[in-house]
Amino acid sequence: MLDGKVALITGAASGIGAGTARRFAQEGARVILADVQDGEGQQVLDEITGGGGQALYVHCDVSDADSVREAVETGVREFGRLDIVFANAGINGVWAPIDELQPEEWDQTIAINLRGTYLTVHFAVPHLKRAGGGSIIVTSSVNGNRTFSSPGASAYSTSKAGQVAFTRMIALELGRDGIRCNAVCPGLIHTNIEERTEHRDTEKLGIEVELPEGSPALNEGEGEPVDVADTCLFLASDLSRHVSGVEIYVDGGASLL
Ligand code: NAD
Predict the structure, then answer these.
(1) Is the CB of 88 under 6 A from ligand 1?
(2) What interface predicted TM-score (ipTM) does this complex get?
């Protein structure tokens, strides 16, 4: 479905990014894997190329403009074009009561999740225009859009809501260039993100959240990276040629109640 296409994926060393990189490569795309975890990124690269796919790993800190510019240029130099951008890198960061969440903790979450999305798109768009169009996909979340059930996650939820607004704005701006822009909003997905999350004093907020009995959630509420990857494949491919400016919830229905 993606023969001849080149895809840039940020946060490609783990979880949803790695799963989507494998899926895109299976469908014939050449994939630029961008991340800060070089060892893990190399493993994903080896796996894809070992299976006959084409990919390249580049070190890229999405919160740093020079780093993103360099990663995009390196990828385009190697593969000659760019058609698909998956702005997916993200962190949960620190979850803490608002009067305890420190300014630098707020800034870090916003810098990676929101500024990182802007920087990735900013440096990629000239190449998409040169290719005559393309598809941009942003990983947002149910959190901050459909659900507000993570006590202490004010910075994270704000960044995820901001990503949806950003996606709609760029869809408006880039439509005439043949560039479609959409967001995926995962629910709970089985990845490593929780390992790098700091929950500090959130119990003080006294908010307990559990899936209600009779919840419509499939698979006990948790999905796998491949569930998001398949949705991204739809958004990256011509199957979604008339779809732009939307967000798709990939949460097994968990956020309906
Ligand atoms: P993950 O931790 O497994 O993968 C995230 C990747 O992003 C990691 O490889 C990490 O190194 C990379 N990354 C972090 N900071 C970076 C930076 N500054 N520059 C470049 N790369 C960086 O987590 P995941 O669950 O696969 O998360 C991917 C995206 O999905 C995130 O945007 C996250 O907010 C979103 N999301 C995840 C879930 C979930 O339940 N897992 C739910 C909703 C949304």
Answers:
(1) yes
(2) 0.99
